[in-house]
Structures are given as C-alpha cells and as structure tokens.
Amino acid sequence: MPFPVRLRTELQIDSVMLGIVLLLLLGGFVILASASISISENAAGNPFFYLQRQLLAALIGAAAGGMCLFIPMQVWRGLGPLLLFLGLALLVLVLVPGIGYEVNGSRRWVRLGVINLQVSEPARLCFLLYLGGYLVRRNKALREQFTGFLHPMLVLTLACALLLKEPDFGAALVLLATALVMLFVAGARIRDFLVFFSATVLAMAALAVASPYRMKRLTGFLDPWADPFNSGFQLTQSLIAIGRGEWFGVGLGDSVQKLFYLPEAHTDFVFAVFAEEFGLLGSLLLIGLFLALLWRIFRLAMRAASAERYFEAYVAIGIGTWLGLQSFINVGVNMGLLPTKGLTLPLISYGRSSLIVTMICIGLLFRIHHELAVDARPKNRKRGGGR
User: Helix axis angle, 80-93 relative to 146-165, nearest 10°?
Assistant: First the structure.
C-alpha cells in the first residue's frame, strides 16, 4: 500500500487514486484539444475554445473538491434532507420557462454566469449523499419492512420522472442503477427489488412504445448501417473512427472523423476519436485506468465498511457505481454495444458541469480516505458504526 500524501494541514490523500485521476485528466485535456479543434475554430474562431473552457471548469472543480477535503463526512450526512430538497429543486427549476436553457431539444441547463449548469449532475450527487444517510438511519427498516424500501424509491421515482421530463434518459438510468446498488449493498430484501423491477420494466416499456423517437433510438444501434445517414449516422461514424485506429492509431491530431463527420466528437463520442488516434492499445490503456480508479474506490468502500463507517462506505459505493456505469455506457455507446444515451465519459469528455461534480466526488473520496487514515492511528480511539 503506497504511503499517503501528507499535506501541511495533516490531511492524507490516496496517492494512487490521485495519480490515476491526474492521468485521466491529462489524457482528457490532450484528446479534447485534438477532438474539438475544428469545432472550436468554427464556433468561436479559436481552436482551443473548448479546451480553455474545460481547463477553467477543472480549476473550479479542483477548488470545490479541495473544499470537500476540509468538511467532515458527518456534516454531509447531517445535510442529507437539505441536499435532497436542493436536488429536487434544481430538477424542477430547469423545467421553468425562462430559467431552463434548451439545447438540441432538451431543457437540461441553467445559466450561472459563465457556466451553463447541467442540473442533473449536482442533483444526482445530492441524492447520493441523502441516500447514504438514509441507509444508515433506517437500515433496520430497510432490511425488514417494505416501507423502508418504498420511501427512497418514491423519492427516486420523482427524481427520475423530472429527469425524463427534460428529457435526460441517460442521467435517469444512471441515478436509478446507482441507487439500486446502494440499496442492495445496504441489505434491502430481494422480493422488494422484484416488485420495483417489475413496475420499472413496465413503465420503461410503456415510455418507449409511446414515443416513436425514443424507440428508434433504443433499437437503431442494433443495425446502424440500415440507415447510415439518419438514425444510424452517429454510430456509423463512431465505428468508422474506431476501425481506422487499428492497433496503434493514426496519431495524435490526425483523426479524420472529428472533422465534422462525427457529431459530438468532443463530448459523447470523444472515446471514438481517442480510439482513432491511439488505437486499440491506447483504448485498452484508457479503460485500464478507469478500472484501476474503480478498484481504488471500491477498495476504499470496503475499508470504510470494515471500520463500521457505513455512511462513508455507501457514499464511496455510490460514487464508484456512478462513475463506473457512466464510463461503461459511454464506451458501450461509442462501440455500438448500447443505444445512445447522451452521457459523457468522466474526466475525459467536454462537459463542465460533469467535470466539476466528478472532481467534487473525488474530493469526497479523498476525505473518506483521510478520516479512515486518522482513525487507524493508535492514538485515536476506534469509532462505532452509524455515527
């Protein structure tokens, strides 16, 4: 186990996790500079327009994540109900005409000065922190009563309904899956899951059938070449980019597909550009970094659970599930394994709200590591679970 980085404030940070995050950030800046150069020049007359905006978001995210290092996890647990209200308020606010900002037919953003805040990002974090506290407070009820399972499910259903109203199907899916994993780890009964899954499957099927556009997106990935210039355009261009990369890639900056062939080359489909320029080996290295990050996160969650710090364990599990699932979906969409969802690749894709919230999540993980390291010192007495 590597020695933690000691700051002058006596904070301790997981040096391996920090190194992985920095490598992903650096790789993200490099591929974003390449993928967005033509789009930036066309949109703003500056080839590094989107890179500069992403760098500013990274600075804001680093500052926000750094602040989390100084806030005890017990404070976040106490703020759970307030955070839940804040998250739901954001999801409602974005739907208000004149406040919500619409892009490509979706009302997902609220203007905050120089940044358009995608409200689903902080809202999901708020819900995750609330749920972590609920699982500690009501763990006995969750394990023994349906009402203990029903309460967070009602809140989750409301949040997902608001996300679908934007619409943001991808964010709703990730939030739903993250919450279900947290509930499962906390000991929710299998029969309660079966009831909820049955209702969810029926609701999702009804939504898909009721919307021809949504059904077309859900099934279009099965054979994108059947309609390569319409519903399958994004995916066919993505597959062409990945195929051009072969083993070693065409070289940094030499992607052809990013030159207005591949839509959203700097956001949803940045992995395809990365695969084109760095090839299969580079793509495997990038995926390996994400797997290493997830390993550190879930290892941290196991350490927290072993120390009977269950709130910290649930939060770490939630963050790991969120980042892991979103990364899997993004890569799967780029490779044609999943229907398009409009989700960014964490720490890599252009997306200022996503980057800032992801770095706040990393700051929370560092805080958990610090508290566990402090508790492990012989001079500190061992704290009980469910603080």
Answer: 30
How do residues 42-69 score in pLDDT, each as one tens digit?
Answer: 888 888 999 999 999 999 999 999 999 9
Tokens 């760095």 identify what position? Answer: 278
Judging by DSSP bridges, how do beta strands 115-118 and 106-112 pair with one another? antiparallel
**Residues contacting residue 380 through CB under 8 Å, at least 6 positions apart:** 374
Q: What tokens were used for 5?
A: 């980085």
Per the CB < 8 A criterion, the answer to whether 24 and 348 are in contact is yes
Alpha helices in the chain (DSSP H): 15-35, 37-44, 49-68, 73-78, 80-93, 120-137, 139-144, 146-165, 169-186, 190-210, 212-220, 233-245, 270-306, 310-334, 352-375
Ordered by start, the domain boundaries in the chain are: 1-68+230-374, 80-220
Q: What is the pTM of this model?
A: 0.90
Integer Cα distance of 62 and 18 in angstroms: 12
Nearest CA to 139 out of 314, 342, 348, 344 is that of: 314
Give the pair of three-digit tokens for residue 49.
């327009």
DSSP SS3 for 13: strand
Cα-based torsion angle of the residue sequence 23, 295, 279, 46 in order, rounded to the nearest 10 degrees: -40
Stated as kind and residue range, the H or E segment containing 118 is strand 115-118
Closest CA to 186 of 281, 98, 316, 78: 316
The angle at the Cα of 385, spanning 121 to 13, to the nearest 5 degrees, equals 55
Amino acid at 311: F
Residue 381 pLDDT:
45
**Tokens in use for 250?**
């065409």
What is the DSSP secondary structure assignment for residue 6, as one 8-state letter? E
The answer to whether 235 touches 260, Cβ cutoff 8 Å, is no
